[in-house]
Amino acid sequence: MAEKKKGRIGRWFKEMGSELKKVIWAKPAAVLKQTGIVFAVVGFFILAVWLIDLGLSQVYQLLIRNLV
């Protein structure tokens, strides 16, 4: 039973290796460019959410001051 499992696991790793050889990997320059784009978009959304939060908190504070 243990040998049968060993064979299946070994075959799985062998097949996985052959499948990974078929993958067309991206060039490092393309990966770097795309990573930069992702960071820029994430930074933009962080800034946008921060500004919206800041604006809404100011509106909230004005409403509270006028009601009290």
Could you characterize the architecture of this molecule?
The mean pLDDT is 92. Helices cover 90% and strands 0% of the residues. With 68 residues, the chain is mostly helical. The protein has helices at residues 2-22, 28-67.
List the uncertain runs.
none
Could you give the count of β-strands?
Answer: 0
Order of helices and strands: HH
Mean pLDDT: 92
Structural class category: mainly alpha
For the record, give the distance between the C-alpha atoms at the N and C termini, rounded to a whole number.
Answer: 77 Å
Strand residues, percent: under 5%
Number of helices: 2
Radius of gyration computed on alpha carbons: 27 Å
Quick structural summary:
With 68 residues, the chain is mainly α.
Summary tags:
single chain, 68 residues, mainly alpha
Give the secondary structure arrangement, pairings included:
Layout: H1 2-22, H2 28-67
